[in-house]
Amino acid sequence: MWLLRRRDRRAPGEESHRVEAATRHSRLGLIVLAVCLLATPATAQLYRWTDAEGTVYYTADLSAVPLAFRDGATLLSAPQARPAPALDTNAPVSLRVTPGAPITVEARLNGIPLTLIVDTGADRTVISPAAVERAGFAGQAGQSIQVVGVTGTATATLVTLPLLDVAGARIGPLPVIVYTLPATLPGGEGAAAPIDGLLGRDVLDAFTLSIDTASGRATLTLR
What's the sign of the alpha-carbon dihedral 174, 184, 31, 95? Predict the structure, then answer.
């Protein structure tokens, strides 16, 4: 569960999602996200609830919401997956699986290419401020939030983007967390091969992810 503390009420994002996949587990500093390389299905829906002090929480597990607030929890609506007109949406997109490295996928935001880590442990997609700026959305209104992880809290921004093109589909409108990835993340800030963000379950819900570690390949297939 991610704890997101509301700072203002601009451009709130709402969605819920399921994902059928498995990837390799990794800890990503302030954001505790998992990627695991075992082919097991997983499903998730995203709920939002607010405690008595007005703190906003997001969780994929309704049972994690205290009973006193469970009736008030909101199941968030999902962004819509739309076929990208120039691509064969029936064809799986092949991804490379490299031992010791995260699985990545190419995406486009406003026509700008991005490299994102496939992370089934992330409830929401994360995109770096630099990538958002390259795509022309630096001035997009957003909601200031606090991301809580094992090492403490960090400030991020929840921004709704119109469309994200990935693996033959256009997903949107899509609320994403705009946040600078930890420098310890492979491909994070300062790395030779920069990573622009994390592809979370909010987008992966539209796909089936299959991993074949023997062949060193994974595939994303639009549902």
Answer: positive
